[in-house]
Amino acid sequence: MNVHFIAIGGSAMHNLAIALHLKGYHVTGSDDEIFDPAKSRLQKYGLLPETFGWHPERITPDLDAVVLGMHARIDNPELLRAQELGLKIYSYPEYLYEQSKDKTRIVVGGSHGKTTTTAMILHVLAHCNIEADYMVGAQLEGFEVMVCLSETAKVMVIEGDEYLTSPIDRRPKFHLYKPHIAIITGIEWDHINVFPTFDIYKDQFAQFINLIEPRTSTGTPVGTLIYCAEDPVVREVAEANTRTDIQKLPYVCPEHCVEDGITYIGNTSLRVFGRHNLLNLTAARYACNALGVTDAQFDEAISTFGGASKRLELVKKNDTCAVYKDFAHAPSKLRATIAAMREQYPNRQLVACMELHTFSSLTQEFLQQYRGTMDQADVRCVYFSKHALQLKHLPDLDPEQVKAAFGGNVNVFTDSKLLVEYVRTLFRDTENKNLLMMSSGNFDGLDFNTIIEI
Prior knowledge:
By secondary structure, the chain is α/β, with parallel strands linked by helices. About 30% of the residues lie in helices and about 25% in strands.
């Protein structure tokens, strides 16, 4: 198979390109710019384009497929050439579905918790020697790539993003995967540039449920919806669905305790912590049960799960102080991550810093969604870059607007160096203090290892 990637340098695209290369396909690609880690990883596998830019002459009739990345524009010269030649053009999610049509598909959807839940399922299946193809949105311990495709796996686990499919297909990605086992972890308004009202956003999940396909279980065709019953919006959407050909499995947070900084479910000690992670764990348990994994097998496996990259990831610690980083950026993610730190370390002062980085978070009307989200932290800092506003073609934000939106009890910074100076003054004494850094970006290139000395 000859497959060409337009915009091969994307975080998802380059992983799919590598997966197909490892499967034995002939893979080529183009992009106008590629940054690390994609650049180094493509170079490692011999897939880095020799020159950057768009080269329509690379689009030839012998291509079996062209995969179009979200970074490309609708007037991309390589796309226009592929259309002119009548080649089969796939979006990223379309091609994943094409590769998984004959497999049992588990698709994890939700405004938050997707990556961790997907990672937990994969960790348990690997521990139980159940082969599975996958697509996950973070680098996982023990997994070389973020996408794996094979001829032999009977199962595929997919992280189902609700963002747009491609420049020429405006459907949410997770609508294309047609799950047999669907998970919805939570619903909270996001991507307001695509879904201008909450009702429109919520409806994408209602449609997702209607796309569940039946699978054969003990001779009876059945599809499965696993959903968080603690989220009132998820519960409303799930219970409003009248399909009789799917089974619905609601879940809640399991009973647990925290002793000496370690969370336990029954006699099982965990390396992860926080109510949101325990909810994710329960969703993963139900999905694995549906594939024949027993609770005993699940507990044994999940006890060694260390978390997905940048999801409440420990940066460094000593006996009295710890630094964590997290991908949290949406309001529900901030609230859940801070609550997890507070529960795990109830006697330590918590300094929480978050970066407004996404389009939604930097939009004046959406900022109000953040009110009260950081209240459980002892010291609260919010950072945003004026440059990020310019790149996203958004109007300027006044720091006082941001402060008011959060409820007036945050320190707002537009210079990351000043933020670091402030944090360092707080950690001159590190006794019984924790630092939590939250962003889908990197605070303009901060090295989290060097912010404070412990």
